[in-house]
Write the C-alpha cells for this entry.
Amino acid sequence: MPAQGGAFVVFPRLHIITDSLDVVRGALGHGPVAIQVRVKTGDRDAYQLTVAALELCRAAGALCLVDDRVGVAIATGADGVHVGAEDLPVAAARRVLGPAAILGATCRDPASARAAVADGASYLGVGPVFATTTKAGLPPPIGPAGLAAVVDAVPGTPVIAIAGITAANAADLPGYGVAAISAIAADPAGSTAQFLRVLGVAA
C-alpha cells in the first residue's frame, strides 16, 4: 500500500501511537513502522507535533498518520488519518481525504469492519483486544477470538490489533499487525526492535 510519493511499498505491521517526539525518534530506524500521532489537546498542538513528527518520518522513510484529526492530516501533508468510532464517519473522511490517502478505521466486530471497508477504509484498527489503561471509556476487550472474527470478515484488508498489545502477546494474535502505545513508551528503540523481531519484520 504505497503512501504519497510511492515511498511505502509494504504497509507496516507495527503501528506506534504516541504524542511524544522522543518516542518517534527512538522508534525510527529499526525497520518499517507507522507512526500515528495522537494528541488529546487542541488542533494547534496536534498540527505542531505532526509537522515535527512528519519531518522525522520522511527522513527515515516511515509512514506518518494522524489520529482522529482529518484537518490536521490534510494541513500537514501526512500520509493519512485514523478515525475512531466517535470521529468523522469513514465515508465522509474518505471524501475529504481523496482516494490516495491512507485511511484507518476503528472496529470491533465483523459487521462494522465490513461497513468501514465498504466506505473506503484502507486498514482497520480492531479492539480493544485486551484490557488497557491507556484510554478511558473503552468497551470490553474482544480477545483474540473476536479479533480473528474480524480478520475473517475482511479478507485482503490489513487488520491491526489495538489495546493491551505487548511484545509477549503480539506474535500469537491473528491479523496483519499490531499497534503499541504504552509498551513502547519506556524504551522506544529497544521495544520497537523487539516488536519487529516478534512480528518477523527485518530491518
Q: What stands out?
A: DSSP finds nine helices and eight strands in the chain. Confidence is low (pLDDT under 50) at residues 1-9.
